[in-house]
Write a structure and sequence with these properties.
This protein has 407 residues and is of the alpha+beta class. It folds into 3 domains: 19-61; 84-172, PDZ domain (Pdz3 Domain, Roll); 176-401, 2-enoyl-CoA Hydratase, Chain A, domain 1. The strands form 4 sheets. Strands 3, 4, 5, 6, 7 and 8 form a 6-stranded antiparallel beta sheet that branches. Helix 7 runs parallel beside helix 8 (283-293). Strand 13 (244-249) and strand 14 form a beta hairpin. It has 10 helices and 19 strands.
């Protein structure tokens, strides 16, 4: 028995030891490289910086959605998901390598100061921001509420740049926009799945119900996703009870987790059309996939992005964190939405496909900002002669008017 025990120990322990030894050798290699850099590199480098770079590189070998988050990035991520931040209240994009204002948000410091759509931001606190990314610019513009920031604007038709010194305020990200269309059709645009989105959706549904809503269009175009639990809660408001919404599956079979609708929603029988496009990802695809698989309504638009993986955030020491892909999610019928990097296959294909060029989608986004500003913006983002037709929305209205969508 002693010989057998020793033999079994050799069989089961030796592979483990081999794996540990190999890992140690690779770590030793990294330490050797750091030693050579410290001894020979032309400039003195900080060891902490080298280790941080090595961690970034290690995580980068996994997938595009796993990230090592240093303290500032971790704080920024929490700010986005919590839905509030200290800032000046503008939506910006990059245009011809300059940061350009899409629209100031009504009631914010930028709006009250008179910043306009199409204003070009050339400096922040007297520092040029030419060619920097939108993400980098946000770091300059955001800050603690009550602090000041000076934004220098170049405006078409005005010879000299204009300085605006603004006091940052808490900016609440409005993720829900709603209005009534013709023939009793309610319209809700959901911009992202942040902490309060499900609560705000219920409020919007109640308001539209008071206006005698008979059917609903849920617009998820350009919605990049957000919190998984919030996406599930949004489905709860549209589905009858006892329905599988989505399930997640990690490396081990035992890790499967099912998300089931738990309540009898008063909107479960409301005729429904969901709008999607190539910018609809993650949480948007959970909602779209459930609606399609459960035959709860129709999807109209273009094939979605194909981001069907679940990330968990693990806090680390010194304010760092690791955002790690831990599972993939699947629609009720078992479809994996995640796009295959090699084949390009993935995402959700709508029931009614309407291909829209990217430049038209960009104009539609700006037009929608004008609509929901309801005359509060200083001036429209898109001039009247440049307005474009929203073929996807028009098709959804047509389907509902002809009663071709049934709950």
């Amino acid at each position: 028995m002693l010989v057998l025990s020793a033999f079994l120990s050799y069989i089961f322990i030796t592979p483990v030891r081999a794996a540990v030894d190999e890992t140690y050798e690779r770590l030793k290699l990294m330490i050797d490289v750091m030693g050579l850099i410290n001894a020979n590199y032309v400039e003195l480098k900080d060891n902490k910086e080298l280790v941080t770079g090595a961690i970034h590189g290690m995580v980068a070998t996994l997938d595009p959605f796993s990230q090592f988050l240093e303290p500032d990035a971790y704080k920024e991520m929490k700010t986005e998901t919590e839905g509030e931040f200290g800032g000046i209240g503008i939506r910006i994009s990059s245009k011809n390598e300059w940061l350009t204002v899409i629209t100031p948000l009504p009631g914010t410091p930028a709006y009250k100061a008179g910043i306009l759509p199409e204003d070009r931001i050339i400096k922040v606190d007297n520092k040029s921001i030419y060619k920097i990314s939108v993400e980098e610019a946000i770091k300059f513009l955001r800050g603690a509420p009550g602090t000041k920031v000076t934004v220098t604007i170049a405006r078409e038709g005005v010879k000299e740049p204009i300085d605006f010194t603004l006091t940052r305020e808490i900016i609440k990200i409005e993720t829900i926009q709603s209005r009534m269309l013709e023939s009793g059709i309610g319209y809700i645009r959901l911009l992202e799945f942040s902490a309060n989105s499900d609560r705000d959706l219920r409020k919007a549904l109640e308001e539209l119900k008071k206006k005698e809503m008979k059917s609903l269009i849920l617009d998820l175009r350009n919605n990049p996703g957000g919190l998984l639990d919030v996406a599930v809660d949004v489905c709860q408001d549209l589905l009858p009870s006892g329905k599988l919404i989505v399930y997640t599956q990690g490396r081990e079979k035992i890790s499967r987790k099912d998300y089931i609708s738990q309540k009898n929603s008063p909107y479960a029988n409301l005729p429904l059309v969901v709008l999607v496009n190539r910018g609809s990802a993650s949480g948007s695809e959970i909602v779209a996939g459930a609606v399609q698989d459960l035959k709860r309504g129709l999807l109209v638009g273009t094939t979605t992005f194909g981001k069907g993986s679940v990330q968990s955030v693990f806090p680390l020491e010194d304010g760092n964190a690791l955002r790690l892909t831990v599972a993939k999610y699947y629609t009720p019928s078992g479809r994996s939405i995640h796009r295959d990097e090699k084949t390009g296959m993935g995402g959700i294909t709508p029931d009614v496909v309407i291909d829209v060029p990217k430049e038209v989608e960009a104009k539609l986004y700006m037009q929608s900002e004008d609509i929901f500003a309801q005359g509060k913006s200083p001036q429209p983002s898109v001039k009247k002669e440049n307005l474009v037709e929203d073929a996807v929305l028009n098709k959804a209205v047509e389907l509902l008017k002809k009663e071709q969508v049934r709950a």
